[in-house]
User: What shape does this take?
Amino acid sequence: MTNLPSAILAYRDTTKGSPWIVTREGLQVIAERTRNAVSIAQIATELGMSPRTLDRLIATDEDVQDAIAMGKGSLETEVVSLILESAREGDGAQQRFLARNVLGFRDTGRDSQTSLGKQQPAVQIVMPPPMSDDQLEAMLVSYRDVTPPEDDEPRKQPARRKD
Assistant: This one.
């Protein structure tokens, strides 16, 4: 008894431009295995081709590219959901990870110009220590008071130097 799948996932067809054709079932396998973070080499083996052949198909076949993108998109959504759940439960490391990698916050530098172009301004992320609900409420009271100071005089700007 052989260990072949019940459906044909990919086959060679020398009458068309590409010697390999991935079937609808093969595209579903690619998307599902990518969603489960299976390596390209393992996916190629399941399709009955070499990893190099699958790499060529990924570079040239839009259907294969779409299947990979769908699988990666599903995996990304799942991973971000798990990280977000941990962050909402108070995991500071996950909160910082989300702020930096999903929202693009940075905690070093200011509007710097690099070989990659203008960089975003820095955002300093400071996590408060663990506290009870009463302690949190007491801390937030001071931030809720937005009454302007008594000093209503406009501030004078320093004179600019003429060069």
